[in-house]
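User: I want to check something. If I give you two sequences, will you return the structure for each one separately, not as a complex?

Assistant: Yes, each is folded on its own. Here is the first sequence with its structure:
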Amino acid sequence: MKHRYLGNSGLKVSELIYGNWLTHASQVAEQQAIDTVNAALEGGITTFDTADAYANQAAEVVLGKALKGQRREGIEILTKVYWPVAAKGPNDCGLSRKHIFESINGSLQRLQTDYVDLYQAHRFDYETPLEETMQAFADLVRMGKVLYVGVSEWNAQQIREGQKLASQLGFKLISNQPQYSMLWRVIEAEVIPTSVELGLGQIVWSPMAQGVLTGKYLPGQPAPAGSRAADPSMASIVEKFMGDATLSAVQKLRPLAEGLDLTMAQFALAWVLQNKAVSAAIVGASRPEQMKDNLGASGVEIPADVMAEVDKVLAGVYMTDPSLTKSPAERPC
């Protein structure tokens, strides 16, 4: 497993990060979740990403149990704050000082740790003054509860304004966590150049486009039983990639992956890691065997001609509009 610096900081993270958004405490039984975390650890992954909102706080509990007994200095634990949690009352979401402090204290208890390595603003909060948010993060850093601070799905202007305030308060934003894949490239035009300028690394989520880039969805055919697209509660997060033109183009990637002796999943992960602005890609495996397959993407170098062929194959179906990087206009609670 390769490790990379997170932005311009001195913190190294594994270039594949285990994330438990849609799995722990929801889709996957607890022991299976723990077994998958162990497979990640055995494969050299040291970095684990979660959020208080995942399974309404329960995913952090499972991850805390799974990592119990590990040498704390040898792993990196990442969590987030913003989306509604707990009773989802008027102060149970957003980036107010009240919610940030209450959230970090709850996350530390659930994760069974005294600090988190990276605390991330899960979206931008238009209803809380940015000065209040950044002051709260600065205070948590000084208290030692948070070592580093990052953001998720902030646009370029928000990142610039946040970094300016962070610098004035004596700390730095070191990361952004955006959606990024062969099919979703909306950060390339504005967010990545701004992040590179200001010293933020990208921790990308959904590098397999919610499983579409594994090639399991075929044009003109129903989604496989048990897949996200077949689940009414999750189909909406996949539907933007489910057009026949997109699914047909994805099938044309298969010979490119096979030519490099990679599975489609490994190829998708290796593709995002070719971008030097990307520090790591999040994988959300639900079974140990899935995790072991994903590990094969670490350290892969895709030749320039193959990268160019990917662009040619997917021309017209991947998304690039920078305005698609956005947060809710109103606080969601």
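And separately, the second sequence with its own structure:
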Amino acid sequence: MVSLILTELVLRLVFGFCDAPLYVSDPDFEYVYAPNQNCYRFRNVVKTNVFSMRSEAVNATDTTVVLLVGDSVVNGGNLANHDDLASTILEKQLSAHYRQPVRVLNITAGSWGPDNVFAFLKKKGFFGADLVCLVTSSHDAHDNINHGEVVGIDPNYPRENHKIALQELWERYNWMFFPIIEGFKEKWFPSPPSADAPQRSGVIQKTGEVFNVGFQQLADTTRAMQIPFVIYLHPETSEIKQNKYDEQGLKIVAFAQSNNVPLINELNLKPGLELYRDLDTIHYNEQGQLFMVRQLFPIFKQHLDRYFHAHTHRTQPTVGAL
């Protein structure tokens, strides 16, 4: 009994069991982190603001705003600490450089496609954005929204927390004790890609038949609103090994070229496999987040220099308007 109590306390106090970041469903963009959370999970702090962003609170005084949007690559999940996120670091660096607040808002969720991102922005607004940067990967070309219910069903998207840490350990992480069972589950009941656990399947595959409409929606809407829009194409580890994007990645490159959207080709920047989490095909570790910061800072600075030089700020739609 004493050992069980000690194990329960260690799981809670050291590893943050029973304090997983929770999700909420949405009829337009499927799901997102629940708002206003401050969780301690796997020795990492996971914060969300009232708009479910992995960012500090949005304020009425925010006059210079960058939207960093995408999926779990930027979101980081439970295995990324709030202060180690590229969005957090970029916000601090840009604010220090310009000697005034510059917001870099993290609008993301695990396994979101560009159409999820656009649906969120259409519903919540563009938050006075002066620049939008979409971080995407090859599989997003066909990661089409399907409105399948995952919150409270898939263990990577919990609706509520367990009350007993030992129960959570067994229900969510029994694969650590029974690899054969987990292999069977992954083969016949695959889960959506999540930043909360290593990807063990090798190459991420999506089943959408058409090119994700969110790319065009974001390009057309930002152009109409006169907001600069850039795409950052992040490779999977298999693409790094082959030194080329797969067929879906090339479709994203072709889309950017045909729509005159600036595209940052990360493969050309020679990322190393040491930037990825162990046994993971897609997600950055802490060094990977810093690598992305080094690539994005000069791009963001280039656009913001023009903004500050103009000494004006466009009137943007209020929350919920387009």
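Because they were folded independently, the notes below concern the second chain alone. The longest helix spans residues 286-310. The longest strand covers residues 65-70.
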